Amino acid sequence: MTDYVIIGNGPAGIRAAETIRKNDLKSRILVISEENQPYYYRRLLARFIAGKYKPENLTVYPPDFYEKKTIEQMLGKTVIQVLPKEREVLLDDGQKIRYDKLLLAVGGKPVIPNWPGSNLKGVMTIRTLADAQKMVDFSLGKKNAVVIGSGLLGMNLAQSLREVGLGVKLLVRGDRLWSAMLDRKASDIIARRLEKEGIHVNFNMEVKRVVGDDSSVSKVITREGTEIPCELVAVSIGIRPNIDFLKYSGVEIDKGIIVNERMETNIEDIYAAGDVAQAYDVVYKDYRLNTSWTIALEQGATAGSNMSGLHETYCGLCSNTEKVYDVALTSIGIVTPPSIDCEVLAHDLEEKNAYRKFVLKENRIVGALLIGHTRDADRVEKLIRTEADVTDMKDKLLTGLV
User: Fold this and answer.
1) Is the dihedral of CA 356, 359, 364, 367 positive or negative?
2) What is the pairing mode between strands 354-361 and 364-371?
């Protein structure tokens, strides 16, 4: 009998628990989470703010899921220290939990820069259902919001706040939306769609300070001197992995927790997966934090397999398939090549909000953007993962593989 302990009940943690149970029918599986809710669709929180989902609709599995899988939950508890020599984790209430195999799937927390006024009421982030409910409650009766951050969550928040009737300005620090995943052309397509819905997209604009009083914010002042009246400031500029509690554990950390292709850390029987795991990326040839729901599921499954005695490897690749309003988009790998030794194939149907782009190196795809039509995403991703030679497929790439 093995004592499996999983810290985190998001997609990585629960997929690992499911995988372990499939391979090991008898051992104990304990999931510890600082949230009080069981596993839910965190990626839908912005749409929850728009009123598209009720809390019960966000739950991934029915209430008896954990009982049927004999997966124990310890909710509302925070792990404050990992003790590898003792094979224990220490909780915030002083309790110690023993483990044989440990998975760190602790995710991250939203980043809020230390602007003057950043602690005012009305400056908000969302990471949990409680955060989202707080934003729903606070936004009632408000007229204008500023959303800071151009990633997927920032765009979805802008869309949702606009749908509940607020005037919305989206502030983008750089010259394009979601700079890690989109190029200028793709950004322009999405920006036009947002503008069509009344969301004002402001590029190359940074926040200098937030102004307000005890009841709410009143405006945002940018470094360029622009004053933007608002009662709500939604900040979405990224997350910072939860790694502080590992300071004295001996677990190797960089930007996140360093793992190998089996999702193992440098300490025997301790694994990591999800937003906190810094895993090898087959395109970038480096250890990177790749944060997405799909990646978390893949890493969780790999970790669970190896924790339960199998030998599975994770082929890391940054990939996102999402939708902004009715514009579907897939971004995989390197979409803005850093060097001139890459070949770029692109096909633009601007009138249809459709765009295809492929970045090739030595006739192998290292990045792709599919805007408007994403049905080829899985096949393109397979070509990238297998490093297939696409010399004879270049025309098909631009016109569609299926």
Assistant:
1) negative
2) antiparallel
- State the virtual CA torsion across 240, 242, 243, 249 in degrees, nearest 10: 180
Six token digits for residue 55: 């809390």
CA distances from residue 344 to 198, 318, 338, 364, 377 in whole angstroms, order as listed: 33, 19, 12, 11, 18
How many Å apart are CA 396 and CA 402, to the nearest integer?
9
Question: Could you read off the pLDDT of 243-294 as tens digits, one per residue?
Answer: 999 999 999 999 999 999 999 999 999 999 999 999 999 999 999 999 999 9
Largest CA distance in the chain: 64
CA gap 255, 268 in Å, rounded: 21
Q: Interhelix angle for 11-23 vs 293-307, to 10°?
A: 30
pLDDT of residue 351: 67
DSSP character string of 272-310: E-GGGEEEEETTTTEEEE---HHHHHHHHHHHHHHHTT-
pLDDT for the residue numbered 169: 98
Is the pTM higher than 0.90? The answer reads yes
pLDDT in tens, 342-356: 999 999 886 678 999
Under 8 Å between Cβ of 329 and 186: yes
Secondary structure element (H or E) that encloses residue 74, with its range: strand 71-75
Cα separation, 49 vs 126, in Å, equals 10
